[in-house]
Amino acid sequence: MSERSDLLGKHIVLGLTGGIACYKSAELVRLLVKAGGTVQVVMTEAAQAFITPVTMQALSGRAVATSQWDVREANNMAHINLSREADAILVAPASADFMAKLAQGRADELLSLLCLARPRERCPLLVAPAMNREMWSHPATQRNAQILSDDGSLVLGPDCGDQACGEVGDGRMLEPQTLLEELIAFFQPKVLRGQRVLITAGPTFESIDPVRGITNHSSGKMGFALARAAVEAGAVVTLVAGPVNLPTPRGVRRIDVMSALQMHDAVLPLATQHDVFVATAAVADWRPASLSQHKIKKEGKKVAPTFELTENPDILAAVAALPDAPYCVGFAAESEHLLEHARAKLLRKRIPLIVGNLGPATFGRDDNALLLVDATEHRELPEHGGTADKLDLARALMLELARRMKLPAALS
Ligand code: C5P
In the annotation, is 160 catalytic? Predict the structure, then answer.
């Protein structure tokens, strides 16, 4: 993916507490800074047993704060100064002991002190637990995690897998890249909170014989970007994907299919359980009328084989025709006359919104240009021409959808 600046203008206090996962926090600082954020690292005494402030200072470009008795602070109130500057406090790794302290509201060293002193309405607290699986599953830790959530903090993870102690289970800190994505998602406006969004993405593959088939150049990137943007906006997301080589965005339920018929059969029963349906998949219009049981052989044949095609069902039109249809959005990949073709499709499929894009110009790329077309109007995204990253376009489209659906979070 192209270089992104999703944390531009955001100031993050990154707290480290005692745990071997501290070594991952070095990478996390690097990622936060690369994403455009500024990072103030705060370390407990135990964290300094695992990684040095020198490393964290070099990566963040700022002196690490380690003491509440810091004479360099003019007012000697590091806990107030640090927490007033921050757009968010992320404690990663958060040890079992530190979570217990937070749950009790104790404040006997700088990091817990500044967490307690932060203005809660504008400085959220996110914690990424990291500990042995027995410590994590202990009722006391589970109670503390619940208290933190109830108090309005966001508990990220933990992950399951190999642990530094050699055991396997829940308690690993989330990977730095995942924590970065969680933090970015956290800052996105929750315009689709509580909405259920169903998305199709990628090409379909229509088999001719066991080794060959008909497909197209769709990479699935636009649909996957939409799925990520919908989760970031607070939606519950189901993604029905054709054959693509893309990682599932975090928090998305993914159903893999190959052919248009399989996509149709996966989507139709789910459609009415969703509030929004976004069809970005480049579904094959036709499939071979019959599937050859064995590979069609070349040997001994003088003329090339021919095979008949039969029409695939139109998934989007079928969903739009359901009695309790979700809000439907189509995509029209064209090579010319975008507006005319897109509007014709809007009317043919009886949907409220279609998004036109130039297929050959965008297939496989990270950027795109969209033309939003409804029955009476059309508008470009990005607004002033050119192209934009598919994730930025996806976020803008989610906001547009929320506005069109008159969802309260989008109107305020
Ligand atoms: O008619 P056309 O294929 O160009 O329409 C494109 C839109 O319809 C896309 O949103 C695509 O996902 C959807 N579609 C579908 N089922 C088909 C063909 C297209 O859902 N069989």
Answer: no
